[in-house]
Amino acid sequence: MTDATGPVSPERRRFLTAGAAVVGAAASTQLWLPATARAAEPPLPADVFSLGVASGDPLSDGVVLWTRLAPDPLHGGGMPDRAVSVQWEIAEDERFRKGVRRGVAQARPEYGHSVHVDVRGLHADRAYWYRFKVSGQLSPTGRTRTAPPRTSSGGTLRVALASCQNWQNGYFTPYADMLDQDPDVVLFVGDYIYESTPSATAVRRHEGTGEPYSLTQYRNRYAQYRSDPDLRAMHANAPFVVTFDDHEVDNDFAGEIPQDPDRQPHDAFVARLTAAYQAFYEHMPVRATAVPNGPHIRMYRRLEFGRLARLNVLDTRQYRSDQATTQDGAKNPALTMLGAQQKRWLLDGLHGSPARWNLVASQIMMAETDLLIGAGKQWFYDAWDGYQAERNRFMREFKSVRNPVVLTGDRHLTMISDLKEDYENPASAVVGAEFVGTSISSNGDQDQAAFHREWDPRMPDNPHWKLLDAHRGYHLFDIRRDRIDAQVRVVDTVLRPTAAPSTLARLRVDAGRPGVRVV
Ligand code: FE
Ligand code: CA
C-alpha cells in the first residue's frame, strides 16, 4: 500500500495503523478509516453517491477518479454547507483485496462537493477498480484503465466516440451497447447536456422551469443527465476523455458572444459562462488544469496512448471568432477557430508527434459540407467550413502529419469523409480521414428514408463523403499499428429505455495511406 496524499497526518497515521477496524458496509476491507476518526462530523443525508462514479483522462501511470456528493441531486445537491473528507481507494481487483493506493480528498461546497482525485503511480495498460467512502456510505465500484506505456508501439487500443446526448430526445441506449463492446477509453466530443427548456411533449422532460443560467441550475441539469442508467454505467466502467461544445453553455456561442446578444447582455453572458464551465468541471473526471478561472477553462489538451496514438483534444468554442453569416464572410482570413495559441499548440503537437496515429478530437466537422446541389456552395458557418482559411491551412499541414484522423460530433449524423487538401479541387490530395460520430440521442429516431431523400442528392457535390447515416449511436475504433478498424454502431431506437444494437457499417483506415474506405 502506498499513500498518494503526501505527508502522513497524525489522523492518517492512526488510520494506517488501525488495521483491524471495520466500518459498516466496508466490512470486507481493512482500508477504511475507523468510525472513531470521523465521529466528530455529523452524519450526512442518505444517498450521497446518487450521481455514481467516473474516471477520466488516463495516463500511462495514472487516472482521474471522480464523484460528487449529492443526496438531493436535482435540487442543488442537498449537502450541508461545509467541506467533507471523502476516502478513496483504488485496487487491482474488484473485491479490493489488492489495494494499491488510497487517500482522503476534500469535497468542498464551492465546487458542489465534487471530488477529483488525480491518482498517480499506477501500472500502465491495466484495469483498476476504485470506490469512495464518506459518513458510513460506500460508493458504487468503478472500473478504469490506464494508458499503454509511453514507449509501446504495438497492441490494440479500443476507442469509443460519442457526442450529443439530448435528454429530451431520447434514452441514452447506445451506451448499453458501448458497455458490451468494452472500450479502453470513451472520447466524448461535446453536447453532454443541452441547455434547452423543459418540453411537455419530449420523451423525457428536462428538469427545472427554463434554460439554466445559474450554477445551481447547471448543476441540476448535469445531475439529471447522470441519472440515465446507461450513461452512469458507462462512466463506472471505462475512463472518459471529455470536451464540451456549445450546448454545455448556450447554442452556437462563440467565445464571450452568446447566440442572441440582444437578449443576453455581455455581463450576464460572462456570468452564465462562469456558471456553465464550473458545473462542467464539477461533473467531469478531468484534472485540476481544468479548474475554471471565471469565464475561462483550459480544455484543450493532449493524451498519449504509447507511441500508437496521440489524442489532441480541441476547444473550438472558447477562442473562436464570431460566426460568419455569408459565403464570402466564411473566407475572411482574419477568422480563427482555435485562436493563435491553440493553433500553434496543435501544429507543434502534430508535427512533433512520435505517434503512429495523430487523432484530433474536434467538436465540429472539419471536412467540407456543401449543402447547395449543383453549381456554387453553401456551408454551415458554425463548423470548420465557416472558418475556411484556418481549416484549409490545417488541410495543407496534414500532408506532412503522420496518419491524421479527426473525430467529431455536433452534426447528429454519421458523416465519414476523406479530408482533402483543397475542397475547390476534387483532384487534390487526400490528407486524412474524418469520422463524425452521429449522436447518442439528439434528434431522436429519424426517418431514414426521408433523411436519404434530403441528403443523398448532395453526394455528387461532396465526393469526399464515404458514408452518411442518421441512426443514433456511436463509433468504435480498434486502433493498431497498421490500421484502424472502425464500426458505426447504431441502435434501433432511443424512444424506449432498451434498444437493439447493430453494426451499420465497417470502415478501415490504413496507416500510410490517407483516407477511409468502407469494407
Ligand atoms: Fe448536439
Ligand atoms: Ca454545390
Report on this model:
With 519 residues, the protein is α+β, with helices and mostly antiparallel strands. Helix content is 17%, strand content 26%. The chain is built from 9 helices and 23 strands. The chain has helices at 10-17, 174-181, 215-226, 229-235, 266-283, 327-330, 339-351, 388-398, 448-455; strands at 2-3, 53-56, 63-68, 84-91, 99-107, 114-119, 127-134, 137-138, 142-145, 157-162, 185-188, 240-242, 301-305, 309-313, 357-362, 404-408, 414-420, 430-437, 465-469, 473-479, 483-491, 501-510, 513-518. Strands 12-11-10-20-21-22-23 form a 7-stranded mixed beta sheet, with helices on one face. β15, α8 (388-398) and β16 (404-408) form a beta-alpha-beta unit. α2 (174-181) runs parallel beside α4 and α3 packs parallel to α5. The protein is globular, with a radius of gyration of 23 Å. Residues 1-30 have low confidence and may be disordered. The structure holds fe (iii) ion and calcium ion. Fe (iii) ion binds next to loops.
Topology:
Layout (H helix, E strand, L loop, with lengths): L1 E2 L6 H8 L35 E4 L6 E6 L15 E8 L7 E9 L6 E6 L7 E8 L2 E2 L3 E4 L11 E6 L11 H8 L3 E4 L26 H12 L2 H7 L4 E3 L23 H18 L17 E5 L3 E5 L13 H4 L8 H13 L5 E6 L25 H11 L5 E5 L5 E7 L9 E8 L10 H8 L9 E5 L3 E7 L3 E9 L9 E10 L2 E6 L1
Parallel strand pairs: 1-5, 10-11, 11-12, 14-15, 15-16, 16-18
Antiparallel strand pairs: 2-3, 3-6, 4-5, 4-7, 7-8, 7-9, 10-20, 13-14, 17-18, 17-19, 20-21, 21-22, 22-23
The structure holds fe (iii) ion and calcium ion (CA).
Calcium ion binds next to loops.
